[in-house]
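User: Please predict the structure of the protein below. I'd like the answer in structure-token form so I can feed it into my own downstream comparison script.

Assistant: Understood. Taking the following sequence of 349 residues as input:
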Amino acid sequence: MTTLLRNCWYVALSSKDLKPATIIHKKILDEPILIGRKKNGQIFAMRDVCPHRGIPLSYGSLCKEDISCRYHGWKFNVNNGRCSEIPSLTEHDDLEVGRIQVRTYPCEEVQGNIWIYFIDTNKSKTTLSNLPPVPTIPDFGKLKPGITETMKFACNVDHAIIGLMDPAHGPYIHNAWWWRSGPRKFRVKEKHYEPVSQGFRLIPYNMPVSARPYKILGNNVSIEIVFQLPGIRTEILKGDHYSACLLTCITPIDESSCEIFQSIYWTIPWAGMFKPLLSLLTRQFLAQDRDAIVQQQKGLIYNPSLMLIDDADTQAKWYFRLKQEYQKSQEENRTFINPIEPRVLRWRS
């Protein structure tokens, strides 16, 4: 049984990684996907397999509104996937080429990321006319991210998600001079959570500015963290001077690997000069999580019974409950019912 959720929007790549008149191959949810951008900037996504002989269409070329297969020159319209030309045909052939079609995917470009929607045609009544909106960051409008980093994790998407949302691993995995310094000082954390659409959120609160980078936002910094299926985590920081947001999206490649997209947005006018440094630190931060999860796989191959025991693990338990309810609602073709209730979580960190 697959663990990968469908009927969801997933980030496929950052907008900056897809230039005009280019095409890119991606593997998402164990499917071969061709993503492209026409000369006019419009994006498209289609199955990256030619139905003629099976060669990936991404080896071909983009010609205005068509993808031309490099093997035999078959052309497919990028908007609807229909075959528009088979060069080898003669006037004696009566084949209706328009009946040959490559699957296309709904895709949208929002706030600096390219999203693709994966419809489960076998279990869902979802159609192109009733797709849910693309997830967006509230209060940031059309602002594009200052930096975006992408990293592959060699693990199932579930372990990446619960690893990145884990509130107790920070002192052990992310202990660096530029983030936290000095001996570990553990204290009880008490956070208020409530359900949101297909997820939950940490209710905004004013935080003590103990981590150095937060101080650039001002003296009074509030934090709000929202998690929503299939794997979208939004961390919004608002100070009395500036605001910032860390958007983390986790996209499955297949059952045993996934891709992490981390975008940072800010309203700080002079922060652009620090982009190279911020990119470096973001990559280091993600790499610390990745390395720990890679090490975790060496124990998971023995299929141990995992112990989610205290309030620090509650968000992980919530994730599995949300996912189970989502899969059940899809199978039964009914409305999703959020199983999470408001609660105060406490843990030492």
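That's the full token string. The mean pLDDT is 91.
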